[in-house]
Amino acid sequence: MADEERAKSLAAFAYKHASFIISVLAGLVVFLAVTSRDVSAGNILFGWNVSAGVFVALSWRKMLRATVESIRKRSADLDFSDTVLLALSIGAALASIAGIGIELHSIKEATPDVALARAGAAVLTILISWIFLHTLFTIHYAHYFYGGADEGGLKFPDGIEEPGYWDFLYFSFTIGVAAQTADIAVSSTSMRKLTLLHAVLSFLFNTTILALAINVGASLL
């Protein structure tokens, strides 16, 4: 009986976090495929790019097809695992930026072709990681809005009471681009905590991107 319950729990977890699991497996397979005996920062970043790219693609596919009812249903299943996966995902995104720094450290010693390839890979990783971070927060804003302890927490203009993913995408990417909430008001403590975390991470991320961009430009001169 206990084994049956455990199997059901694992199946429910796998179904609930299918996009996350598929993306991790995809990145791991690619990493193992390109890695022989030596593990390099470039191979790790390659695996990360695939993993994050798959997650973004699957998430956007679901979001563009989602209805308010489906968002509510998904939000009702929120549990501790969502918070853990959010923390792990943020950590992975930040680690990818650190990996870029390691990869670019030796760019001046490389040949022009190799240096250009590494710079291009760095730009691609930055772009994917940036989109990944704000997509991740988009999903959590929606789930906190419909299933958090303080249901709601965001006040949208034009009297929108049941926002869809497009509304949450707008909110999330506005914070990522402009570090502000624009015309959407935050009205609950739990949502303020999530928004504060997002704003701080966005600031750190954008500052790091600027520093890396300067580094890449200087390295190629």
TrEMBL record:
Pfam family, one: DUF1345
UniProt cross-references to InterPro entries, sorted A to Z: DUF1345
Transmembrane segments: 12-34, 40-60, 80-102, 114-133, 196-218
Entry keyword set: Membrane, Transmembrane, Transmembrane helix
Top-level taxon in the UniProt lineage: Bacteria
Keyword Transferase: no
The UniProt record lists the keyword Transmembrane helix: yes
Protein name: DUF1345 domain-containing protein
